[in-house]
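Late entry, written up from scratch paper. The run itself happened at the end of the previous shift, but nothing got recorded in the book at the time, so transcribing now.
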Amino acid sequence: MTRSPTATAPPSVPAATGIWGRQLDRFPGTAARTRYLAITIAATVVLYYQLYAQGTVATKVIADLGMSLTYFIVIQIVGGAIGAIGSLAAGLADRWGRANLVVYGLVIVSLLMLFAVPEVGGATSYLMLFALISGVEGVVLVATPALIRDFSPQLGRASAMGFWTLGPVLGSLLATAISSSTLDEHPRWQFQFQVAGIIGWIVFVAAFIWLRELAPALRDQLMVSLRDRALLEARARDLDPESVLRGHWHQMLHARIVLPAMAISSYLLFYYLAVGFFVLFYVTTYGYSEARANALANWYWIANALTLVIFGALSDLIRVRKPFMLIGGVISAIGVGWFAVATAAGDTGYYRFAMIILVIAFGSGMTFATWMAAFTETVEARNPAATATGLAVWGASVRIAVVLGFTGLIFLIPAANVLVESGHRVTELATRYQPELATLQRLSPAVKAELSMKPEDPAVQAEALGQIANLPTGDVGRVITLQRQQNSPGLTESDQRFLQQNGGRVTDAVTALRAASAVPADDLAYLTVHASEVRTAAHDSPGQWGRLWWLCFAAQVLFLPSIWLLTGRWSPAAARSDAERHRAAVDAELHSAGTR
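Output as recorded:
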C-alpha cells in the first residue's frame, strides 16, 4: 500500500542561544509563552516601581539633601531627557534583541537602588544617579512592550498590552502601598529605595534564568492569530532579518507613528504629574501626611489596573480599539477638568478627591490599554520588523513630554516652591511656640522694637505687660508696686480690691512674657522672614495647581483627534470580516505549501 506524503515540521530558524543570545528557534507553546509574558510584565512592574519610588518620599528627599523644589524638578527634567535618549537607543533592540536589555537593565537599576542611591551625600550625586537610572529605564521600558508584542498575536494584543500597561500602574501602586504602610515605622527615605532594590534583584534572578525571546526571523513577521505560527515558521527560513530592517527609522518617522506617539504623551501628562508630585501636592496644599497622600493615590492605581485588564480583554473580544480610546479619552478628560475645579476650590475633602480620581482612572485605563494595542498594530502595518524602533519613538515622545511638563511646573506653581522650602519649618515652629507667638502678637511693633533694644527697662516691660494683660500701663505699674507691698500693714481696702481684680492678670502676663522672651532669636527671625510668604503661598497654591490640571485637561482633549490616525476598525463587524479574510488567506497558503 502506497502511503501519501505527509507534511513535516519546518526546520528551526537560526537562533542565538545561551545567556547572551536567549533566542527561541520556534514559537513557544502556551505554557512557555505565558511564562515569558509573565516575567516581562513582572520586570515592567518592578522597573516602574523603582523609577517611581522617589515620588513617595519626595518631601523627605528634598529636605534631607538640602534641595529646593526647583532643583528636585530639574532632576526629573534631566532624568526625562536622559530617558528619552535611552528610549531612542532602545530602537537597537530590533537588531540586538530585547531579552538581554531587560535582564541586565534590571540588575543595573536594582544595584543602584540598593547600594548607591541610599548612600548619596548631596543633591548633585543624587541627580547623577537618577539620570543614570532614567537612562537605563528608558532602554528597558521600550524593550518590554516589544517583547509583549512578539509573543502576542493581534487578536489577543489588547489583552496582552492591558497586562503590560499594568507595569506603570502596578509599579505606582506598589510604590505607594509599600510607602504608606512602612513610612511610619521606617521614616528614612533611603528605606524605600533599598526595598525597591531588593525586589528588583529577585525579579532579575527569575528573568536571568527563564526569560527568552523569539529569533529575529520569527519576530520580524506579522502574526494575526496563533493559527499563523506554522506559516510564519515556514516563511522564516527564507527571511533575511537585515534586509527587512533597511530604512526602519525612516519608516517609523511617519506621521501615523509620530503624531499618535506625541498625542498619547501629552495625554499621559496628568498621570506622570500624579506619579511624581501627587504626594507633594497633597502634603503642601492640603496638609496630608505622606502616608495619607500615598493612600489616596492608591485609589487611582487600583482602579486603573482593573480597568486596563477589563477593557483590554473586551477590546480583543469585539476586535476594535478606537471606540474604547474615544470613550475613555472623553471620560478621563472630564475627570481631569473636575479635578482642576476641585483643586481650585481649596477645601475639597479626601473622599471627594477619591471619587474624582476613580473617574480619571476608569477613563485612562480604557484608553491606554487599547491605544498600546492599536499603536503596535500601526507600527506593524509599516514594518513588523521595526517594532522596537516604533516603540522607541513612543518612549522618547513620552519622556520629552515629561521634560516639557515638568519644566512648566517650575513656572506655573511658584507657591509650591515656597511651601516645600519654608512651609514645613514655619508650621513646625508655629506649632512649637504657639502660646509664645500668641503673646508676641499682642505686642505692638513699637513695643517689640523697644523690648529688643532695652529688654530690662522697667517702663518698656510695664508697657509690654499692659498690652499682654489688656491693662493700662499705669495699672500694671500700680499692680507691681502693690504686689511688693502686699504684706505691708498700710495697704488699703481699695488697694487690696484692685490687686485682687488685676494682680492675677499681670502675673500671667509676666509668665507669658518670660516664656516669649525665651524663644530663640533665630527661630523668631525665621518666622518673621518666612511666615507671611508661607501664608500667601498656602492661599495661592490651590489656584496654581488648578491651572496645571487645566493644562492636563487641554492635553487630553487634544489627544482625541489622533485616534483617527491609528490602524484599526471602528466597526466590530468590519473587524470580524477582516479576521475571516486573513484566516482564509493563511489556510490557503498553508494548503499550497503542504504544511497543513
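The CA atoms of residues 447 and 453 lie 10 Å apart.
(Scratch paper discarded after transcription.)
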